[in-house]
Every structure is written in structure tokens, then in C-alpha cells.
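Final paragraph of the annual report: two paired records, presented back to back.
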Amino acid sequence: MGIFDALTTAVAGLQSQSFALQNISGNIANSQTVGYKETDTAFEDLVSQAELGEQTSGGVFASSVSSNTVQGTIQSASSPTDMAIDGNGWFVVAQPAGSTGQFDDTNYYTRRGDFQLNQDGYLVNGAGYYLMGTQLNPATGAAENTEPQVLQFNNSFLPASATSDLDYEANLPSTPSSSAFKLSDYTVNPLDTASGGTGTVVDNTQGDLATFTSQSLDGGSITAYDSEGNPVNVQFRWMETNSSANGNSWQLFYQTNSSPTTGQVAWQNVGTTFNFNQAGQLSSTSPALSGNGLTLSNLTVNGDTVGNVTMNFGTNGLTQFASSTGSVQVNSLTQNGFTAGEMQSVSVDAQGQVTGSYSNGQTIPLADVTLATFNGQDSLAPLNGEAYAATPESGTPIYSATGTVVGSSLEASNVDIATQFSQLIVAQQAYSANAKVMSTADQMIQSLLTVIQ
């Protein structure tokens, strides 16, 4: 029976090597497929039951081995909606079912990130799978769902947002080019109320406004926005109110009326004194160092009300060093308001969020891309189009993958051509050897038949 066992074993060897060749050929064919995971071949021996010393080498069985946890090279891509996963994780995707807007109840998983925005506002990859994630409210940034859902981005309208924060950083000159402040030059005391003043500069016949202009320095200007998105030009001026060997004091004003008439307030004091020490740093007693910033209550310019605005100066945002011009050098002046706008394009940012670019110049996060992982990733069931389905062996999806989404990038196939060619040679030689065993066994059977005749 040994000759016939050799024949059947050789047949099993041919089948196993054919199976390996099929995997090798599939790997080579998909060496340029985005997000493809190569399939390797494992061989298992089959031993017949026999007494010790009477056992013979048995047959062989071939099975596939997944390489789902082996990452491919991340390459740059030209499309702003292309994305790759650096590290552990899978994109959660869905397939359409029937009419537009209907999807299967089953979630699928893929590393193929060549997503493009289709005519209905869905992000669809090259294999036809629809991206899922957490949709964010464009106005508030709040999540609109807890479980992954198919993401859709329409040409949504972004409502206007009033300015609520203003960041200001500047260097005030240790020797200003303006005239020295003299309280006696004013009919109405412009200092803040804590200093015994009214906190306002009034346009009057005594020339308070002209005096203030000559005794203060331009502190820059910025366009803020009210709740309807109307632009509001906010201008600032600094006035040095005290100079001594121990340091200098300044007060900050913003313009409330660019064309005041007699008796109207033209500039408003922000309501605090900025004290600088001899080293040009803000004194620890200055309110600007409190960390909470200053509140410009009911900021109004030329009758247009912006509302309460928090003015932040940052860490060491205000300094007082020498200046050759004697003027204020504004290093940074930004605000967070904007007009209404329509979405023009979608892209993926460095934080792995899908963002929308709007006609008002704003870039707003629209969605968080959900990444899933599994306890048994190599036990996922492969599907057409580089997608996978969960199995009992893989376990249920865990939506806390540690990988990060990289925008404008794609993950290449993890197939190594050199390795596949070497495995191809080994499979070819093994196949030929098994074929030789069959021909040898056939010759032996023919010899046996000759003896019988």
C-alpha cells in the first residue's frame, strides 16, 4: 500500500503547492492595490495512525494566513480626501442598499483610504465603500451621533458667528514718541474708574479728543463681526499714564465712535492699568496676567454691537522694550468671529478630521473619522474591494484604535515583490518534486504489473 499512499501524498503535495501558487499570484497581482493585505500560505502535515516505529510521512494540507496587522508604506497623495491609517485601526465603511441614501445594516472594515466626494456628498473609496464616522455640528463642533454613521457633506451654509475672543500681543516702547500724559490737559478724566477717571475720551470743545490723540499711540486695528456677520472695525490706542524709575504704567483704549459730535464718547478705556517693571515685563499685579483675560463688555463701535469680547494677552504677550520709532509694535492681533459662508471643498486635516472650507475663509471640522480594531484582526473575513467583515473569531469591533489618520496620504499594498518571487521559486520546485514522486510511483506500479504478468 506504500506506493499508493505515495501517490495520494504526492497529489496532496501538488494541490497544496497549487494553493500556494494561487496566493502568490494574487499577491503579485495586487502589489499596487491601495490598502491590500497579502495572503501567505501555511502548510500542515497529516499523519496516519500507526504504532510507534511504523508511522510514515503523511500528506499535507495548505491554508491561508492573513497579514492584516502588517502595515504598508504610507505614501503622499494629491487628493485632499485621501487618507491612510498610521498604526492600528480600520476605517468603518458601509455598502449602499437599494435607493440612494439607504445602506446595509452591516458595517465593514478596510484600510483602503482613496475616498472621493461623490455627487450626493458621500465619501466613497475606489472599491465603492462609504466612509462612516461621527458627524460634527459645523456651528458648535458638538458630535451629532454616538455610533458610527455614514458621513454625508452637503453644500451646507455656515451661519455667522460673533467675535467672542480677541488675542493681542504687542511690544510697547520704553520711550514713546507721543506727548507725555497730563491729566490737567483734559476736561473729562480719561483714566479708568479705578484711577479716579471716567474711562472715556469725549469729543468736546475743550479739545480732549485731540489731546488724547497726541498723548497716545496707535495700538493696531482688527475687523470683528457682530452676530449677523457684519464687519466691525475695532481700533486700539495705548497711553502711557505714568513713568518712574520702578517702571511704567499704560492704559488701553478702543474706539467706539469714529465720527463723534460734540459731547459724544469717542474712545473707551478697557478698564485696567498695565504695569511694567524695569525689565520690561508685566508686573505680577497686572490683571492681564490673571489668565482669564479682560472682558470688553458690550463692545460697540459706531452703533454696531458685537457683544462681550474676551481680550487675551497670552504668556509674555505684552512687553515694554526699547523701540527706535517709539511706536507700538503689534505682534499678533486675531479674533474668532466670521461672516456667513457656503462650503466649497472638503479635506482631511492633520488631526484626522474631515474639514470643510467655506467661502468666508473658515475651515471648520465636520466629522471625526471612526477607527475600529479587533482582538483577532487576522481572523477578519476578506471581501472584494480590500474590505473585511467581522467574524466570531475576530470578535466585535472596538472603537478605540490607537492608529492615527493621515490626510492626503494612502497606504500602499504590504506585498513585497522580492519575497513573492522567492516563494514562487520554492513553490515551483516543490510542485516539480511532487510531480516526480508521482511519475516514480507510476514506474514502480508498472514494474509490479510486469512481474505479475
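The closing record of the year follows.
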Amino acid sequence: MAIFVVSALTAKHLPCNVDWDFTPVAKVFTQANLVGVRPSLPVKTLNDVSLTHRRHIKVGLPYRTSSCDLIAVSRKIFPGATQACRGSKATRSQRRHHDGPSLTGVCMNRIRALSLALATCAAGHASAQQPTIYVGGPGGSTQNVFKEKIIPAFESAHRVKVVYVPGISSELVAKLQAQRGKQEMNVVIVDDGPMYQAIQYGYCEPLKDAPVYADVYDMARFGGKAIGVGLNVTGIAYNKTTFAKNGWAAPKSWADLTDPKFKQRFATSSLSGTYGVHTLVMFARMNGGSEKNIEPGFDSIQKKLAPNVLSWSSSPAKLAEMFQNRDVDVAIWGSVRVYSMKKTGFPIDFVYPNEGAPAVVLGACPVVQNTAPEQSQAFVQFLVTPQVQQWLATDGWGPTNSKTQLEGEVAQNVPYGADQIKKLIKVDWDVVNQKRAEWTNRWNRTIER
């Protein structure tokens, strides 16, 4: 057990809210066998303290302990009292007056070893004080863009550590619900449907005003509680090689998907996914309905579209596999997913249907009552800067900042430019989220039975 003395002078300005792993330091203390006398730091501020005879203080270093104990020692070892090695003899007068004998050579070597270990841990303490924010967002290739480009740039500019937590949108909102009152995430990045739910449930902190928000398209706004950081579009994906081989023209309309030639060669998402919701809404709109009058959508899908469907899977990986295996030739899918697959060399292309294409707005919000509110606000603002928007565009996300400049292949494969953005359809998620459970029950009974 190490025995040492700590001065209040070295600890009074230091934070006490960080836990450390002190195993290496504990070993050095034990090996050094340091002995001290009466401390000037109040006993109650130290961990595992017990008084011994002659008012000595015995302090043990547990596996995890307070940073105050370490830094009080590491900044200035035992000020106000002279230390000696166990076995050194001090006079009664020296002990009474907090004075001790000179350190022997052996003692000095032990002190040097101790000082080196403490200096290393002190540097670790400075790192431990760096704020950390946890960001929940999409996985896959989008996660790679965050980890390789966005996060390093933000960490460098803001002296903060960012931990990325990948997940699908519904799962991330479920985490917010499970952690209500003690949120572990600082920022969430999810699709617009789940984002409106997060806002409705009170999980998003209002955005602080920032000049960069003035450049964001109206379509990408969430009423001051979140902001759109990327645009995806629900449309038609098709295998160009198969269509050319069969002499088929590229699809132009949502109605083209009901053609009997696509029977069991077509795939789309179930109502559990955003693409499925968009499919239902668009077939309702095409047939005189709307989000508030969804009946025409159910009727048209059940009678005309469902017979062609091979799979209702909401898994992007599974749909990509079905295209690669030539199980399907056409599907309702997102522009982000199509561009990602296109970059692999697969002969796939994306169509914006004539009747319009619904936008999928990837939104970001600072989480309420999180542990780093300023850094969270700064991170959300950072996501809509032109540079970050360009990085996200390489993964297929259309920019929400109107000042973003794209060129070449990227500009051709993502929703980009004011004219194209104006043509996108914004779904009424307030109505959809209110009715979704009811619609899902009906869908399971009548469509995917």
C-alpha cells in the first residue's frame, strides 16, 4: 500500500468529475514505498483514506478513482512536507514539524520513476477533459464519410472528440425514447419521418440561430428544431442491361410499375420503411387521394402493383443482392442507394417519375438535455456548411445548402440545384405518423398477407 501526503494547493483548481484507470500508477506507488506525514488537504476529499498513528495518512489507489487524487500528486509531489522512503529514520522533531531527512540515492530513483508515471497520467488527464459528443446516424457508406472526412475535420476545428453511433432511423429514435431524461446521444441524424416523431416527442433541442441556416432550402427545414443535411429521393431503379436486352423503354411513371411484364421481377419496401410509405402516398395521389385520403392508394396497390412484387423487403442490402443476382429488374428505391450501387459498376439507373418524386430529407438535431449542448449545436451547424455538403454528395446525398457547388458525375447523380429541388414532393409526415400504425395493420392484412 502506498503512503503519501497531498497538498490542497495542487488540487483546489482541478475538476473532480473524471474517472481514471490507475493500475500503472498504483504499481509505481507500491514499488516506491513512499512515506509522508500530515497532509494539508482535507481528508474528506481523498478516496479510501484512513488515519493512522501520529496523524499519518494512508491513501490507497483503487482501480478507478477520482482525478483529483492523481493530479494533486502529479502536479507537485507532496508540497509542504518532506518525503522519505520506507525505512528511513526521522527525528521526533522532524516528524512534528513536517520535516524529514534527505532522500537517499535509492529514494531519488524511486521518486524519478514515480514522477515519470505521474507525468504520463497527467497528460492523459488533459485528454480526458476534452469534451466527447455521441452522434447517431446512418450506417454503411454514409458512416464511412463521417468517420473519414466529417468527424476528423470537426474534431480538429473544435477540440472535441466525436463518437459515431450507426443505426437505422427508427432504432435511433427508439434509443432516444429509452434514454428519456438521461440522454446518451448528443446529436441524432435520421430520415424526416422519424425526425418529425423525435420533434413531436420533445427529443430535439431548438436550433440556435446561425448564418449558415439562411442558405438551406425550405424543403430541408423542420420548424427550428432540426435541419436537413442531405436529400435522398424515392423513385424508380432499373437494370439498364436487362431493359436493353428485352427492348423495354426506361420507366417514366409510377404507373409503369403495374405493367404485367414485371410480374415477380419487381421489388419495393413494406410500410415499415420510408420507401414503402412513399409508394402508398404516391399511388394515393395518382388516383385522386392524398395523405389524408389514403384509400385510393391501398386499392391501387392491392389490385395493380402487388401482383408484380417479388419482395417487400426494406433491407437495402437485400435489394442490392436481388439486383446483382438478377432476381429483379426494377424496384422503388432511393437515389442514394442507386448511386452507391452504380459506383460499383453495376448497370443500374435512377428515374424521377413524371408524377413527381418524394424527397427523403436526412435531418439532424441536437438532443435535449445532453451533456455537451454547445458542441452539439456547433456540429449540426457544421453539417450544412458547403464543404461538408460536398462530402455527403459523394455518397449520394443531395445538398440542402443552396450555396453548395457540385460538378461532374456527382452533380448528375444526386438531387442538386434549385430547379430540381422545387420539383420534389414533401410528404405530410404529421398526418403519416398519426395514421401509420393504422395503415401498417391494414397493409399487413391486405397487401402482404
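The CA atoms of residues 119 and 229 lie 43 Å apart. This concludes the annual technical report; the extension proposal builds directly on these records.
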